[in-house]
Amino acid sequence: MKNYLLIIMLLANGITWAQNAIINDLDIVRNNMSEQENSWNNGDIPGFMKHYWKSDSLSFVGKSGLNRGWKKTLDNYLISYDNKDKMGTLYFNNLSINKIDINTIHIIGSWTLKRNGDLGNLSGYYSLIWQKKNNQWVIIADHSS
Questions:
Q1: Options 3.30.200.20, 3.40.1440.10, 3.10.450.50, 3.40.640.10; which CATH number does 2-144 get?
Q2: pLDDT computed for residue 13 by the predictor
Q3: 4, 28, 31, 135: which is deepest, by most CB within 10 A?
Q4: Which of 5-9, 28-32, 83-87, 89-93 has the lowest mean pLDDT?
Q5: From start to end of 2-135, where are the E strands?
Q6: Residues paired with residue 129 on neighbouring β-strands, in sequence order
């Protein structure tokens, strides 16, 4: 009977540890997205890009179609948002967050850019795949429209 109790206790501890690891990973990704909002709202596009996978294999799908690569994605942001007025104030609203496996999180949400003057506000949706690489959570695929 003692062995069964020990096994049950070890299983319960293992389940609790796994649940805490999932919650911790989700919190890290949420914090990364908050950092992205802050960087964007401070006019810091390279800081915003900090949480994207710095690889030629990064996938970004937007209104102009599929682009590959961290540098290409950075360049596109720098061209499209070449001043603070165009950047406006960014807000993310995560609608769905799912841990696919130990190293992959999928997020679906909406984004809003509040802008002054004639530029008008922009909004849309995103689907992000975050993956743990070298012990860091990074976006490996972004589909924003």
A1: 3.10.450.50
A2: 58
A3: 28
A4: 5-9
A5: 59-62, 65-68, 89-101, 104-114, 122-133
A6: 106, 141
